[in-house]
Amino acid sequence: MNTERKKKKISLLGSTGSIGTQTLDIVRSQKDMEIVALAANRQVDLLEKQVREFRPELAVLYDKEAAADLRIRLADLPVRVESGMEGLIALAELEEADIVVTAIVGMIGIRPTLAAIRAGKDIALANKETLVTAGHLIMPLAAEKDVKILPVDSEHSAVFQCLQGADHSEISKLIITASGGPFRGRTREELEHVRAADALKHPNWSMGAKITIDSATMVNKGLEVCEAGWLFSLPPEQIEVVVQPQSIIHSMVEFRDGAVIAQLGTPDMHLPIQYALTWPERRTLGGERLDFQKLAGIQFEQPDQTVLRGLPLAYKAIAAGGSMTTVFNAANEAAVALFLKEKIAFLDIYRLIEEAMDSHTVIQNPCLEDILAVEADVRRKTEGGVR
What we know:
Elements: E1 8-13, H1 18-29, E2 33-40, H2 44-54, E3 58-61, H3 64-73, E4 80-83, H4 84-93, E5 99-102, H5 110-118, E6 122-125, H6 128-144, E7 149-151, H7 154-162, E8 171-178, H8 188-191, H9 196-199, H10 209-217, H11 219-232, E9 239-243, E10 249-255, E11 260-264, H12 270-278, H13 310-320, H14 324-340, H15 348-358, H16 368-383
Parallel strand pairs: 1-2, 1-5, 2-3, 3-4, 5-6, 6-7, 8-9
Antiparallel strand pairs: 8-10, 10-11
């Protein structure tokens, strides 16, 4: 009897970033997984190394000049090299793929995700912006195409794990945990002169620059509340955020009988990535384990919503609905980019988001073209709002 597993074929969108490289770690450890396509923005050197190791049939660099360089470098291999949005969509639709890991940062992930769902591919979702801005398009389409949306973010994976075997009608609320970031407990005055290097020192997690800044502002948690609403079909009033500074509890679910189920573990993204790729199976995973005999305690705090205003701004955007979550996300992306270039101060991120939201007239049920047009307009105005 042949018990060999059928190989799961994976297209990886965002292979050179933090989630992408950790996804490749998982594939290296699993004999029944195979990379069939890789995509990145412009990191030619790293993508070339990945292609030579994993031998996918398709490699994509969004930057066209970088893709031309990669094409020359890989002339000795039977790999197709594409570029631009056309290349990302080709990856998403690749016939051989069983699942698409969307590990790219930003709204650039929306079109490929929609294309993958239309092509019947399951999605391992690590791109918050896709659901934050287009959840009303993504989730109905996934249901129509019978496609699984498997969360990779640690918080949403934790909720997903807590809900295994549970009826969604039994949920009372979701409790999304936050570390509090590097500026937890700081006053507004103390944050007036912090620099990007300070904000990039996350106390627990190793993440990309943009997500690390979002954690420092608590915008990341606001994006996660919005994403959780779409993933688990719950209104924002049933999604609570609590600060858990040690990042031991990754999220919890309270059920209508008062029981609370939590998912605990060390702060390591390999676990939620692997679970998304092997679900419903759990497999052995190396790494550090929690030692409860040495654990002194688990601390909880209420999130700061007066200094670190990312969370209340997100709830305001969710309440407005329609295109407002796109405005919130786009203004934040532009503001974070400006902060990383040291063109604005840390607290200016909130100002630019708030100004963008206050000046926007909401479009209810925006189509994809509306979303992309709003995003482009908000980015342009936000980048021009530097004082």
